Amino acid sequence: MKRRTKIVVLGSALLLTAGAASAATASDAPRERATASEPREREAAALTGTAKLYRSAGDDITFSFDAHLAAKDKADPAKATGTFEFSHYLNGEGARAEVKVDCLLTGGKLAVVSGVVTDSDLPGAEGKRVGVTVHDLGRHDRLGYSWAATGSPADTKELPKCVSSAPFEKVAKGTGDFTVVPWQPEL
User: Contact at 8 Å (CB) between 52 and 61?
Assistant: First the structure.
């Protein structure tokens, strides 16, 4: 139960940080105006947001993403940076994991992100690569994950970067806030 509280505290901290960032932005307005004439380069791709998955049995499953591919790295999705987290609890039992992003591919409103588990209370998960697919459909987002066929991230063997399953899971009503910035490589 201690780990579940960490996710709630993390969410609150993110909200507080976002509020502080907004306040800082307002106070920095003159500096922003001075640089407003400079063109701002859009990042090459991104996946952000948090949602809970819908499960009729009442499982508490949450995914949060903060993955980015810088404009300068547009030609190499393996240079993506950031993190994502996921947790799965039912009746007070379950696990959570934190992942360091190592690849991000997006196309339209679909994203595939992978990374290596850096911290988890699921035995055998640390050091394993996992992948997640997100379909950004507004309030009806969908999600899939690389361990759909194995049942556990700990049971995944040598997963390549940017590999996951189809987004077969539905997010719980009112929680879908994923945002996908489409990758536009020069072909």
Answer: yes
105: left (phi over 0), alpha (psi -120 to 50) or beta: beta
Cα 157 to its chain centre, rounded Å, is 22
Q: Which two tokens stand for residue 124?
A: 């055998």
Taking the CA atoms of the chain, what radius of gyration do you get in angstroms? 17
136 contacts 178 by C-beta, under 8 angstroms: yes
Token pair in block for residue 158: 């040598």
pTM, entire model? 0.78
| Per-residue pLDDT tens digits for 42-61 | 899 999 999 999 999 999 99
Whole-angstrom CA distances from 63 to 47, 142, 143, 176, 177 are 12, 11, 9, 10, 11
How far, rounded to the nearest angstrom, does the alpha carbon of residue 163 sit from its chain's CA centroid?
A: 14
Of 117, 112, 41, which Cα lies nearest the Cα of 77?
A: 112
- Give the up-direction half-sphere exposure of residue 59: CA atoms within 13 A in the CB hemisphere: 17
The single residue listed with the structure tokens 């009746």 is 91
